[in-house]
Amino acid sequence: MAKLIGGLGTSHVPSIAAAIDKGLAGTDAWKPFFDGYVPAKEWIARAKPDIAVVIFNDHGNSFFLDRVPTFAVGCAEEYRPVDEGWGPRPIPPFEGAADFSWHLIDTLVDSRFDPMICQEIEVDHGLQVPLELFFGRPEAWPVRVVPIFVNVIQYPIPLPSRCYEMGRVLRQAIESWPGDERVVVIGTGGLSHQLQGSRAGFVNPEADRAFLKDIATDPDRLAAMSRERYVEMFGSEGAELMMWLVMRGAMDRDVVVRHTHYFVPASMTGAGMIVMENAATAEEADPVAPSPGPEAPATDPEVQAA
Amino acid sequence: MQIVLLPGLLCDASMWSGQIAALQPHADVVVADFSQLDQIGAMAEAALALRDGPIVAVGHSMGGRVALEMVRRAPERIAKLVLLDTGARPRREGEEATRQVLVDLADRDGMAALAARWLPPMVHEDRIGDAGLMEPLGAMVLRATPEQHRRQIRALLDRPDALPQLGAIRCPTLVMVGRQDRWSPLAQNEEIAAAIPGAELVVIENSGHMAPAEQPAQVTAALLRFLGLPETPADSIPAVPLFDRARSRRGYRINKMAMGLSRPENRAAFLAGEEAYLDRFGLSAEEKRAVMARDWREMVRLGGNLFFILKISAVDPVRITEIGAHQAGMDHDTFLRERLGKR
């Protein structure tokens, strides 16, 4: 049985990548932002995950509007960074965890989630930036990735509650996987930002800070909110925050918050980060102690439908 | 596309407010003013003079008769014709006396008395007590004068017999009528649609004679479809252009063009000859204008999505905050300060 060792949330603003590429991370403008991630990087260095499941959205790079999957799961051996228009970025490709990806796809479909299945696909800043924030710029990434793409651009986008439910199935897949990998789940996107329309530049630090609290303590409320409410509170692009609910849905009800960070504005975005562990299996005392988790639950679709 | 809206007796632009909001993102929309005229022919000339070149004529009731007269006088100018709740036949026997009663009423007791008498039979009988519909209609009648009423009644009584010309109409034609129109009944509009070659008839459900105001959504949807325009409902959240199906369909070409810039050879082509590159994706003249002017607000209005059109800034560098400021209608410093709280 694989083990869920943590749930992470972070913004994936492309300007963060550009700041790293241009060597601006230490400048006055960016240093406070990157400093906030230091404890998270230390946490993940101790936690040593084998697999990172990254929930993000493609931003018109790997998917055009000709085919828009509501949910898609990558099951490739490798994911190359996509050229978003500015040319290739100097980062290594991401090694996949194809076997676990296929198991996740099986589990999802058995549980009545029917994602697009992607054996060959490139990944954009939505996945790149979170990995860079948590792992820096290694020669090779120390973790294998499982990308979950969520359509948060072309309406109708999925319901926040649906994202949350998908997270529960992701948890089942982790716990029913016969390997002993250590898994982190990373929800990405947000926080408040709006890039289009006359409200462009909208940020809502108050709502962002409340979200960073509630994602740990009151996720049911966040999952029950409508898409329209997300747009109103977090801006048209800020609605991508609902992807954090996939991560949160994979966690237990009770979590321990290890780190949070908030910085506004990163470019045009309220940028937030959180590191959580399940309270029942928190490892801080002994980061590599095996934990006696529950037996892997059967993925019975009839039970799931209830 | 130039669209001329032709209002009926005592009506003005307010009659078309639902349609104008939906059409304006896509077309140059103008409403004719017939308040000072007393002949259908003069109204037709006035409407034709509002724009040069081809127009879409959309006439309601008396405005429909004006539209038919415009087609008769200048068929080459009318690209498409839309008739709503109208008629083609000349004055009926005894019509003058019936209409004179209302002319006298307005003269004697004023427009409020006329509105109280005239408006209720014009709408679906279930809507007579509906203040949301009736109050704006009443206010519209009060904006008119007894003199305008008299002039327009004169125009209606002197109207030409348009029935014989219908078979000669060659432009695409849409006829709409409220199913419960008691003034220009369904049968009368069916007769018109049948006589115009290829004309399409759309029946507006749960509507009387004032269909554009009574059932604006139905009328607008039929109009947009007939004109080949995407449906862009008003933003459900103010100032937030959600990327819904209408925007996605509207912006498909412009977004596909921008998506192409992910490839280095396309970036080179864009830089080598921007217009030729845009032509490869079949962009319309207004879409090309918006891109070449780097008019981000206009690109978004035309269905461009920032995630795609942002790639233009990879070829011709501009900061995302400048794109934001442009859309917000602010200079860059003000935008950074007021929206993003910088400095």
Automatic annotation (TrEMBL), chain A:
Protein name: Protocatechuate 3,4-dioxygenase
Species, as recorded: Prosthecodimorpha hirschii
NCBIfam families in UniProt: PRK13364.1, PRK13365.1, PRK13366.1
Domain Extradiol ring-cleavage dioxygenase class III enzyme subunit B: from-to ranges: 8-268
GO MF: ferrous iron binding; oxidoreductase activity, acting on single donors with incorporation of molecular oxygen, incorporation of two atoms of oxygen
Swiss-Prot/TrEMBL keywords: Dioxygenase, Oxidoreductase
InterPro entries xref list: Xdiol_dOase_suB
Region (Disordered): 283-306
Pfam families: LigB
Top-level division of the source organism's lineage: Bacteria
